[in-house]
Design brief:
The chain is of the alpha/beta class. Helix content is 28%, strand content 29%. Helix 1 runs parallel beside helix 3.
Length: 269
Amino acid sequence: MILSVALLQMKSSRKKEEAWEKAEGMIREAAEKGAHLVVLPEMWNCPYSNEFFALYSEEEGGETFQLMSRVARQYKVHLAGGSIPEREGEHIFNTSFFFNDAGVLLGKHRKAHLFDIHVPGKIYFMESETLTPGQGATVVETEFGKMGLAICYDVRFPELFRKMTLAGAEIIILPAAFSVPTGEAHWEISLRARALDNQVYLLACSPARDLEGPYQAFGGSCIVDPWGQVVKMAGKEESIVYGAVNFQRLAEVREQLPLLKHRRPELYE
């Protein structure tokens, strides 16, 4: 089976209405070109900055949630909704919602590892000043099989990806806004390593780089196959990355190089 996918590398906006309009337009275009699974980037409806997360946050079922559900249903696509700031009581989470093509929520992932980093002279960002971490790994059941969800900095932690794989995930979706310095150093190698280690397709969707915004995302949205090879990768500008998940290739890779079968868990405790 072949699953057609599209990664929407879009800029966010200080106006939610503009972000909603742009996202829907790109989803419509992807659907018209045959995509069955569409992926949005991290914090796509919100400027990527601590000062905006609380201001733009919504409860599950809010306006952005309703938009994603509607467009998934209207354009008949499975929608991995990137991530948005989700409010629950006094807490704000970085949350990815996943909808099927009937607009039904199949699952959600709250970013488990928060991006707290200080690279002198290059970047200072402390998500924990505003956000609360999620508490688990996330795998959703779809008509195309099981898919894992993770967000950005989660990719730095191999144990989370192995847990999703052992739970049956064959595709892992990663909305992610790597910074330019960390992206130049580690974006591609991290994605290829997680895909190779777990023999999964990894779909990583970044925001486009916005030189006028408060945060510069690296870009480079890409599809990596179970052999650890980059199938397609975007530049830094707004674009849609089209590709396919080939389940036969996935099965062949896992059979020819049976890493998962050769695991010896008793040695890893």
